[in-house]
Structure formats: structure tokens, C-alpha cells
Amino acid sequence: MEELNKNQIVLLVLLVSFVTSIATGIVTVTLMDQAPPAVTQTINRIVERTVEKIVPGAPPPPVVKEVQVIVTEEDLIVKVINGALPGIVRIISAGEDKTFISGGFFVSADGVIVTSGASVATATSTTSYQAILTDGRAVPLTDLTPIASSTSPIPASPSGGPDLHFFKLAPPTDASNLSDKWTKLTLAKDLPAVGQTVVALGYSDRPDVNVAVGIVSSFFSTDTSPKSLVMTNAASGENLGGPLLNIKGEVVGMSKRAGFAVSSETIATTLAMFK
Questions:
Q1: Residue 270: CB partners within 8 Å, gap ≥ 6?
Q2: pLDDT per position as a tens digit, 43-91
Q3: pLDDT higher at 28 or 180
Q4: Structural domains present in the chain
Q5: pLDDT tops 50 at residue 1
Q6: Can you list the pairs that 142-149 forms with residues at least 24 positions away whose Cβ atoms lie under 8 Å?
């Protein structure tokens, strides 16, 4: 009798546990249906993770280690310089003396180059030009500015001279020697902010590239073009015709003279004449 009572007690406990489990499941399902979606998602994620952990033979999840990378402004400036170097050129006369005229840079992938209009206007002793690429190759240039001037005037500076001058690389005699795609520098769509860091690249009469780093200090407006010139301490006589770049590597202007750069908006508007 005593042994039978023990068996009955065990069976009774199992029965109670079974009924309790069923009741708990029913209550849980009911509460899950009534719970907000956020709570349901959280519970599902917990269940999924629990299942992943108890599956026998499952490989352990990968360990993700976060490494903090500090990028300084100096690193960004070096990146901007290296990215823009293939897109800048030296413009020289095609005569025997190979006189340096100005720096310049590509504004289209098919070889259109913008440079300082004042520098080209000063070089009255030549009518033929060459571009010296960063790899040292000399390429003949076709002068586009007279073509544009005959249909629509090139914007002039307050002093009366042209701010911009455009050339295009002449088609190569041997297509295998030159690429038909050039490193075009991207023109910024928005004007830089006052105080923003800018990087000026360009050439003087030396073959080495000149680099200057500064900030945008203000803007200069004309009657016909508001904020047409960017005032900055980065533009100097050492980088005339070269690009003025923001920290993202976009062209915000072209160095016109010490302290001034023609805005990217003016460059883009003038470039549209050749389309």
C-alpha cells in the first residue's frame, strides 16, 4: 500500500506539471498576441538567440571587435592632394622656349582644362600651347575660349580681364599613347562656408606642384554675379590657375590671384558654353 501511494504521488506530480505547462503555454500565447509589436520582436530575438546557443554542433558566432580609427584633418588633406594630383597640369607655350604660362586642371573627362584667363592674356608672345601632365608628357592644346567668346562672352573680372580660359587636349596622333579619359576634378555644387578649410594646388615656373592650406575668409560679389570670387589665404601667386579644393576633394574655386579664387559655380556656368 505504501509503495502504491508513492507511485500515485509521482503520477499526480507529473500530471500537475503537464497541466501547468499547458496552461502556461496558453497564457503565454494569449499575452504574445496582445503585446505591442516591439515587445514581440524583442522576445523573438531572445528566443532566436537562445535557440542558436543550444543547437548542438553549431559553430560559435563570429566575434566582432570594434577598433577606433582616428582620422585627422592632416590625413584628409594628404588624401585630397593625392587624389587631385592626376587632374592638374602645367600649361606652357609650344614654342622653343617652352615658357610657363599657368597651372590648370581637368573639368571634363574628355580633356577640357580650365586655367587663369589673366595668365593666358599676359602671354601675348604665343598662340599655341601645350599641357604638361603629372607624368611628364607634353600634349598639344586646342584653345576653346575664342570659340566660346564668339557666341557668349566669358565672364570678366572686375579689372576687365577674363577670369577663366579653357583649353582642350588635342586628339593624339597615336591613340595608344594617351587615354581618352582624364582625371576630371569634381566641381562642388555648393559654395564653401566661411571658415572652411581649403587646399590650393598649382604650379609656378617650377615643375614641382605647390600646395597651400588655408580657410575661406569671405566672398566677393560683382553686379552680375553674387559671390563670384572666393576670398582665401590659400590662393597665391604660386598656384594661379590651379584648383581650390574642400576637404572632400571637390573643387570650390580656381586660384585667380593672391587671396582670390573664381568660384566653382562660375566655372560650371562658363563650362556649359562648350556643351
A1: 114, 148, 154, 155, 164, 166
A2: 555 444 544 444 566 567 777 777 777 878 899 999 999 999 999 999 9
A3: 28
A4: 73-274 (2.40.10.120)
A5: no
A6: 142/167, 142/168, 142/169, 142/170, 143/167, 144/112, 144/168, 144/274, 145/117, 145/120, 147/274, 148/270, 148/273, 148/274
